[in-house]
Amino acid sequence: MSELRAQLREWRKAVEKRLPPWSSRAMAVSLIAIGIVLPFLFSPSSAFMNATIIAVAYAVMSLGLNVVVGFAGLLDLGYVAFYALGAYSLGWLGSGFFFKAQVHVGVSPVASTLPGVHLNFILILIAAALICAGAGVVIGLPTLRLRGDYIAIVTLAFGEIIAVVAVNGQSVPVGGGMTLTAGNLGISAVDAPYFPGIGSFNLLNLRPWYWLIFAILLVVLFVNLRLRDSRLGRAWIALREDEVAAVSMGIPLVRTKLLAYSIGAAFGGMAGAFFGAYYTTVNATQFQFGFSIFILAMVIIGGLGSIWGAVVGGLALGYINNYLIPDVLNNLPSKFGFNFQLTSVEFGIFGFLLVIMMVLRPQGLIPERRRRLELTAGIAAEDAQLVETQGPAGGPT
Amino acid sequence: MEPVETTTISPTPSPPAVAARPLAAVRRFAGRWGLIAALAALPIYYGITDLTNGYQAGVVAGHAVIHHDLAKLGVNFATGLSNGAIWALIAIGYTLVYGIIELINFAHGDVFMIGSFTSVGLWAVLGLGLTTGALGLIGGLIVTLIIAMIVTGSLNVLIERVAYRPLRSAPKLAALITAVGFSFILQNVGLLWRGGSPQSVPDLIRAQQPVFTIAGVPILRGYILVFAVMIPLVFALTWFINRTRAGRAMRATAQDPEAARLMGINVNATISLTFLLGGMLAGAAGLVYALYETNIWYFQGFKAGLIAFTAAVMGGIGNVRGAVLGGLIIGVIQALTDSRLGPQWTEAVVFGYLIAIMVLRPRGLLGEETREAG
Lengths: 397, 374
What we know:
The complex is a heterodimer.
Chain A: H1 2-18, H2 23-37, H3 47-71, H4 80-93, E1 94-95, E2 102-105, E3 116-119, H5 121-140, H6 149-168, E4 173-175, E5 178-179, E6 187-188, E7 194-195, E8 199-200, H7 207-228, H8 231-241, H9 243-248, H10 253-279, E9 281-282, H11 289-302, H12 307-328, H13 332-335, H14 346-360, H15 369-375, H16 380-390
Parallel strand pairs in A: 2-3
Antiparallel strand pairs in A: 1-3, 4-5, 6-9, 7-8
Helix pairs in contact in A: 3-7, 3-10, 3-11, 3-12, 4-5, 4-6, 4-10, 5-10, 7-10, 8-10, 11-12, 11-14
Chain B: H1 4-7, H2 17-52, E1 55-60, E2 63-67, H3 71-101, H4 108-126, H5 134-164, H6 172-194, E3 199-200, E4 210-214, E5 217-220, H7 221-243, H8 245-255, H9 257-262, H10 267-293, E6 295-296, H11 300-315, H12 320-340, H13 346-360
Antiparallel strand pairs in B: 1-2, 3-6, 4-5
Helix pairs in contact in B: 2-12, 2-13, 3-7, 3-10, 3-11, 3-12, 4-5, 4-6, 4-10, 4-11, 5-10, 7-8, 7-10, 8-10, 11-12, 11-13, 12-13
């Protein structure tokens, strides 16, 4: 097995050496081009198109969580809080929910006659990112002195508190007979994204939704790639590897950690606002602890800390959750004589995937190079390689 | 009880010396008294409002009866303590496992849920129902207790063997994630077993029937049952940990696994034993919960797990007495918010307390410092 792997690695190196220097750029351009023309291959309101849109939005969330968990090594089990806050940003700023207010900025002619706060979707997206970044700092502050599991618990508690507030928000008055949230009834009739010259989006034609979320993904992806190689990105990785050493090398602990929380949260908020618009309702029942784990599973399955892993993990679980399980395999148990549908045990399936992934391939599908070295430091192939280069005494440290 | 700042190498770069003095003093003060003050705040506040403003004790002939005494607070405490005793049993499982391998066993709450489900299933097998006589009931429940404890204990050992042991040398995040994964698997097992909505089970012991009254506080049968199960188990556990050879091995492994191994202790067997003990207590808690609450749900384990973990952290993780104390305190907080603010806010209050503990005193009430919480 390890010989095969070493062989494959050699072939890969040989292929990479022959490729011209512009090949990676060409690959990126062609991937983006495929992404753009993809919707023309499917009917504009097909189930597959729907699953693709959700999967791309999951990939955005997964990229956001990857900043916190993957880069900075701060296990966040309350990421659903940012989904909720992003979705509520849309509910608050893009619907008639605050019916006493009359604010209209760059919205469709229909929406501009309605009461409530109606902002253009791009403005809402920015607002969602800012609100979530602020919330990220608030959640990050109490965890600064803590490490590891304790951070996980504090973030989990924050996520649950936000979920409870979302459910009970209909009994929290904010003045003028208006309430904070609509609880389990949901803030519905939120504005569809509207752009001058394109018009309002509707659910009969899913293509514009796809291009919108694809554009968001590209922006988030670009920011992520630039961040990873920046001074800040290296500071995150240093903190993840050894906090004490990193701090004694002069990395500002508070600022670096809080930036990780707020940047990760901002991406989650953007995806949350998109989901609010796409599902046309902001309902408190969406914000369950299971969703945090679902997003975490994407990051883990893709490979902690790996940007492309996060994208692949998000897309894979998005398709499994919204296409494979409900549309393709849902009746599988009944074929074996079991009396349940696969959708009812989807979280069990993800739990199973997590366990299997961790036990068999803890580095994920597309592991980050640095983490792969850490995890496989004991494996013979790596050892042999190290022995070759460093002599027999050199071990992985 | 040294303050945190002076005994560990704090990862926080210390602020300039001049500014540090008053800030450190405030932090030390908050660390020592902040949590205790936060815990005492709720009962004291409600006690004072009950005495001064009174509360509505009932309605007689269309008029509200207002009382000015502490009986309502007493009822809250009685409910809270007996609920808390169940959380304490679960919290011990968290604290034992964390003490020995520094892992939050997320699946523990769901092991407790499986304990409830097994117990209710066994009642049907043994033919226990509302018409069973007292002697048969007691005998049947003891058999149920033993079998449920064996089932959940073995389940916990199995989880450790399959999901945690292969990852013992991997980064700690990996084991935590498999724990979460197993929690979801067990939840779905429960979901397939008894469906997605809460099910009521026969009220075998008539848990809500009062036995006697102390100072206006009725003591229900359920309360007595909970403590009759919890107290002997906790004493047996502390005896086991403090007085037996295997218990000494557990303490040694918790202190330093490497050194324990060098002293000839079978570390793997000791860790399995710890999971067995934690799982057995969770099974006992599962039976008591089913008898006391008279309804079971596949999701009960998740909530109970979070609450019990909060209790373990509050008491000081790794400390059995702390877990019991934390469980009882959380139970009282829950009962207070349930009856005063409304049950829909209870979860938020409990988690609010969890965050307050983490900020004010990460090592908990009775705990010692750990590397994580420094």
